[in-house]
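Methods — Computational structure assignment.
A single polypeptide chain was analysed. Its primary sequence is given first, followed by the predicted tertiary structure written as structure tokens.
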Amino acid sequence: MIMVQDLQAHENAGKNLLYIAQLNKAQDSGVLKKIIGTVDAARKIGLMADAEIVEDISYTGWIAVFKLIVNAKVDIIILRSCGIFMFFLIPALFWVRLFSSTKIIIDVPTPIQILCLSRAQERELIIKYSFLSF
């Protein structure tokens, strides 16, 4: 009997995944556990997976993340979103997509998703309220 995991392992054989994140391991232990879990799950389905954690959260850390993205020789990059500073990584992401076949996945933390939703909902409520007041 062939198991689903065996089929996935065959399809993913030889593919590489790199999870890139910039965080403070001591303060963000939950995020670190999630990254380790994601890398372990990728290995279980046959990917050669690794994580690069940049602990420097200053601008030199952003330069290190930029270099990791541009120099990665992998099939898949998972990039942990870093809020507003993602803007500075756009050139690196475009570079990778233009000059390689690497797929890029951006992992957006839930609080950021909720913040974006609430901001959009706020604007919608303001617009509705302004129309009702006339």
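Note: The chain is about 55% helix and 20% strand.
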